[in-house]
Amino acid sequence: MRLIGPIREGGGVMNYEVLESFQPVLTKITERDESMWQRYDYDLLRERTEIHSLAYISDGEGLLELNGARFVLRKGILMYVPPGVRMRITTGKVNMLRYFSVLFHYGELRWEGADGVWQDTTHAALPLNSVYYVEEYPIVLDIYRRMTEIWDGKKPGYMWHCRMEFMQLLHRLMRWMLEDSQEGVRSAALVDSIIVYLRDHLHEPFDRSAVAAKLALSPGYFSVLFKKYTGCTPIEYVTRLRIDRAKQLLMNSDMPVGRIAEEVGYADPLYFTRLFTRETGISPREFRKL
In terms of CB atoms within 10 Å, which of 17, 43, 198, 229 comes out highest? Predict the structure, then answer.
């Protein structure tokens, strides 16, 4: 999979931190075709957009204007329009623009142990550029067609299924953005190797400088690169891995809590218990009873 672009700089970078808290509410999924363009006389104008839109051009050509900035639209382009902008899309009767569109609101739900913290981000733009050219045209087109078919069918659970397809689309877009170049591919492979190393050495004390040195990276670049691809710092990721491993040991063994703490890299059982409780909302002993 590869993303060619972005055509315009200045957006942001999707990562797992964004996706993990992202809670979309889809309001409309549709295919914009000739009937729509005839209704608007081939000139769709919104003085101020009220909702997020992520659309994919399936055929034709046109022009997108966002707050005065212009972008040529053609087959294979993915365009993102946030709320609060002046948007105008124009096309002609010849080689008329056709595209699939998902309209949505979203909020962010972050978990602090067992407590969920909701943030209303209705008018906040996602970390995306306005226009991308996607080389993997059939894959993206298939996702949009499936979403449209599910949405129009209105069978039980259609909202959930559409939301899952939409999340898969964003995940693909995120990976394409991060791997958009040979350097991006190498960086992604490097982060994968870091994760394998961390997973295999959970029982050892975590030393950022030592791990970075094994990979011939500076500690600062190591942290920046890791967070760019995973959405969290190395120590946050190690903590997640350790807590997950501790859960497995609590469920599948009779090992004492103190011994489990050692197995996942914590010499102090009391500190491990406090950290486990903070991350899960319950103590290790309570978790074992579930």
Answer: 229
